[in-house]
Task: inverse folding
């Protein structure tokens, strides 16, 4: 829910905040690839501003103020104003607009007022410190109203006049009474925003089964649907406990290598084709995609005594079977050998007490030296 950190601008001013990380390390930070190219970053009246976690927006610099990446600015909001950090400016902003399908001449683009004043930043920090307690109290209020929903995060607007409550729910929720109670309790304007289980996991954060920080909490901002077909194509066991992430949905990383697996299998024959041999029918059991091997067995329901067959050999057998011919064997003996690991088994060659013997010898030597010194002194 809350990450410790700070933000800074290019002048070296540091603002310690509960969840915003240092400049350049934010989840929504955008790399300016044209930064060191002379003349590439021409002045552009639209800038990109990031806020808490997964929220950012584009604003029009109507006053032609010279900003730098990392500057804390006050921007137009509805109502009042909000405080954010400039994450991108210049030519690359136009590409970002194109990416998100936003027109440069859109009237929906709000304005940038000014660089944030010390009073703005103080109020901003005070509002951020209220977010965790507000979330805990709002959860209790929702429970008292018997609403089937979970409030996962709260974000105050920079001027502390509005609060966004992020919630997840399986079904449609009538929260009109909740909004009235929250408005009376916190004396601010209330906005309810529904998010999915993946977005909630990204806000909470955590460590994945790979041992690294969750992708949705570190760099992912857009979520692509994941299906069980992604696991099937990669020959991953369809175990729900292993395929599900901390959000309870299929892991996003199942899509990372999917394209390479699909590309590798483009010329693979149909797995459901039964191969006919003189020893009987052979059924496909499993696939080693990158080694281009199919594993076949003569018993359909028994995955023992499997025979590895190269994909090219499988194609040849299918072609012969279509001609009405049966092959003598799936693969000729000796024509294919699996790769063997080149290692030496050193187990048992060394004694477990070999170091103890050395220690006993050193102790005996020390005793002899001590006795010799004592004799010399006497």
Result:
């Amino acid at each position: 829910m809350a990450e410790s950190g700070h933000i800074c601008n290019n002048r070296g001013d540091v603002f310690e905040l509960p969840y915003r990380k240092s400049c350049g390390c934010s989840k929504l930070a955008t790399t300016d690839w044209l930064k060191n190219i002379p003349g590439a970053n021409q002045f552009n009246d639209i800038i990109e501003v990031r806020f808490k976690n997964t929220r950012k927006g584009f604003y029009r610099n109507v006053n032609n103020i010279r900003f730098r990446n990392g500057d804390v600015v006050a921007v137009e909001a509805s109502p009042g104003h909000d405080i954010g950090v400039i994450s991108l400016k210049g030519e690359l902003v136009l590409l970002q607009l194109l990416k998100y399908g936003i027109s440069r001449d859109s009237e929906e683009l709000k304005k940038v007022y000014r660089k944030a004043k010390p009073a703005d930043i103080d109020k901003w920090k005070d509002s951020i410190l209220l977010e965790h307690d507000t979330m805990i109290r709002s959860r209790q209020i929702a429970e008292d109203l018997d609403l089937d929903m979970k409030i996962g995060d709260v974000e105050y607007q920079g001027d502390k006049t509005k609060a966004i409550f992020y919630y997840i729910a399986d079904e449609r929720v009538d929260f009109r009474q909740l909004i009235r109670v929250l408005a009376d309790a916190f004396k601010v304007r209330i906005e309810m925003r529904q998010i999915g289980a993946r977005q909630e996991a990204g806000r909470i954060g955590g460590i994945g089964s790979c041992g690294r920080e969750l992708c949705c909490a570190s760099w992912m901002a857009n979520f692509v649907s994941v299906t069980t077909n992604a696991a099937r194509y990669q020959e991953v066991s369809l175990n729900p406990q292993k395929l599900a992430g901390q959000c309870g949905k299929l892991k996003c990383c199942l899509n990372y290598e999917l394209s390479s697996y699909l590309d590798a299998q483009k010329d693979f024959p149909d797995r459901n084709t039964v191969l006919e041999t003189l020893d009987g029918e052979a059924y496909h059991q499993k696939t080693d995609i990158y080694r281009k091997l199919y594993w076949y067995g003569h018993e359909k329901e028994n995955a023992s005594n499997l025979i590895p067959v190269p994909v090219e050999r499988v194609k040849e057998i299918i072609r012969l079977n279509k001609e009405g011919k049966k092959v003598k064997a799936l693969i000729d003996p000796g024509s294919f050998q699996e790769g063997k690991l080149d290692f030496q088994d050193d187990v048992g060659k060394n004694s477990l007490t070999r170091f103890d013997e050395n220690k006993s010898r050193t102790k005996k030597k020390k005793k002899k030296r001590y006795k010799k010194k004592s004799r010399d002194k006497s």
